[in-house]
Each structure stands twice: as C-alpha cells, then as structure tokens.
Specification:
By secondary structure, this protein is mainly α. It contains 5 helices and no strands. Helix 1 packs antiparallel against helix 2. This is Transposase and inactivated derivative.
C-alpha cells in the first residue's frame, strides 16, 4: 500500500540568457556569501550556478597561461615539422653518405 503519491511532471530545463548567467557568475565570485545562498536569492539551483562558474569563468592568470601554452605549442609544431623534414631528407641519402659523409668510395673497375 502506498501512502505517498509521486507525480511526474513534464518540466523542461530553464534556459537563461547569457547576460543573466554573466551577472550570476560575477555575483557568486565577488560576493562573500556562499554560492548556494546566491543561487537561492537568484531563484536558480546551486548546481546550475556552480556549473556556470566552473564553465564560464577563468581567472586571468589561467587565460595568460593558456596563451603561453598555445604559443609554445605553435613553436613546437614548427620545430617538429623542421626536424621531420630533416629526418626524411636523411633517409633518402645513400647509405654510404649516411655512415661516412667524408669518405668517397671509388670503383676499382675489376
């Protein structure tokens, strides 16, 4: 026998405008109150606010690190391309030049 009643509703997730999300993130980061309290005051779930904060806000230091890593990645890719081309060129050289580039073999004509 069931004493309680569970009702299923057709609720769709709310879609909030970007401006609202930005304001909520700013408020959550800059206020000294817990994120859960900020979420309650805004009428949204704390998990939504936590997700927005984690997804959309990056500290400036992290952004600078990302730029630095991107530049480093570009430089390393260029270097890899250069070294790969050099390797491919060396593979095409005759074996005698690969072993002793200063020595020249002479056919004695026997």
């Amino acid at each position: 026998m069931l004493t309680g009643r569970i009702e299923m509703t057709d609720t769709k997730p709310k879609i909030y405008p970007a401006e609202f999300k930005e304001s909520a993130i700013k408020l959550a980061i800059e206020s000294k109150q817990p994120v859960a309290q900020t979420a309650r005051e805004l009428g949204i779930t704390k998990s939504s606010l936590y997700n927005w904060v984690n997804k959309y806000s990056k500290p400036k230091e992290v952004m600078r690190d990302d730029e630095h890593l991107y530049d480093k990645l570009k430089r390393l890719k260029k270097e890899l391309d250069k070294v790969t081309q050099e390797r491919d060129l060396l593979k095409k050289l005759p074996r005698t030049l690969q072993r002793n580039p200063d020595k020249v073999r002479v056919d004695k004509g026997e």
